[in-house]
Amino acid sequence: MIRIEPMRLTDIPRCAELELVLFPEDDPWHEIAFQSELAGAHNRYIVARDDDGRMVGYAGIALLGNLEYPEAEIHTIGVDPQCQGLGIGTALVKALLAEAGRRGGPVFLEVRIDNVAAIALYEKHGFHIIGLRKNYYQPSGADAYTMRRPAMTGFPQPQDTEVFS
């Protein structure tokens, strides 16, 4: 079973390590970037742990706007390549969407146009492509789709996970 927990400062080195493996051509985040994101009052960062307590994935979302006009933006999702295809990405997306659903409003994200698996995952959770950002990822120059999930309230909590607060 995978547990979803709030990211701790002690998780940051592992996140940076996974970034180097997952996104080597697109300026992977360094530890300082994760520290900055974790410190942001409007950001929520989580990790996925396996039965042995090993961190096998991470994700982050920014809760933006205000109570009258809320919106959220998924900043990152990463899963250890040795653990991909086991539902960890799905568990992370569900946890992020549960957090966004408590506030309401649409959720946005950017994804490489060649990341077919991620696009399919996002579409499965109600996201639609709404735009194209040319040369979005640097230094590779890869294009990104902007995707949007419409506002939903009362989003169900992920099953078989511990949701962060």
From TrEMBL:
SUPFAM superfamilies hit by this protein: Acyl-CoA N-acyltransferases (Nat) (SSF55729)
Protein name (record): Ribosomal protein S18-alanine N-acetyltransferase
Swiss-Prot/TrEMBL keywords: Acyltransferase, Ribonucleoprotein, Ribosomal protein, Transferase
GO molecular function annotations of the record: N-acetyltransferase activity
GO cellular component, one term: ribosome
CDD domains xref list: NAT_SF (cd04301)
Top-level taxon in the UniProt lineage: Bacteria
Cleaved signal peptide residues: none
Record gene name: rimI
PROSITE patterns for the chain: GNAT
Domain N-acetyltransferase per the UniProt entry, residue ranges: 2-152
